[in-house]
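BUG: 3D viewer hangs when loading the predicted structure for this chain

Environment: internal workstation, default settings.
Expected: structure renders.
Actual: progress bar stalls at 90%.

Input used:
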Amino acid sequence: RGGGGRGRPGEMAAKGPGKGHMYGINTSRASAAQALYVTLETSLGALTVELYTAHAPRTCNNFYQLAQQGYYNGTIFHRVIPNFMAQGGDPTGTGRGGESVYGGKFEDEISRDLKHVGAGVLSMANSGPNSNGSQFFISLAPTPWLDGKHAIFGRVSAGMDTVRRMGAVPTGANDRPTTEVKILRAVAHTEGEKAPGQP
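Structure tokens produced before the viewer hung:
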């Protein structure tokens, strides 16, 4: 594919791990905000994301509420680029659809404390500044060129094996997986609640 498949995630196109950074958040400045999680039960297994409510409250609220409403159920990861990212959250499956809980698009919440430092960073896909809707991506490697352009709002806290399986799926035209990678169900929960499938 060459370099043509990379660029901006979204509708899409990061600085490597810095000291004090883990999964995209500067751990030395982490806040004890309310812990919210969303578990995505996918056709490749489950993964759970922890949301960074202190750094991106509106973005986290959008994702959490869409998950609660069942918006992501049955949607696919329509774009997967190995060693870059897996993008989903578009109910049309085209990469051009989806809207936020706020109706239409909403503004970026960019924090200098958050960086695309490695695999497992949860970030909003967009078509330019302040164009966030429902689409998101999970990084599969460090992507420092996205820093300051895409709102990071969480990290994969469980299920990195699922993320690795996503990054290894065969793809065809437009980086679309040749076999659908589907979100069967998205479940919003808090830290104290058990994620689906846990004893």
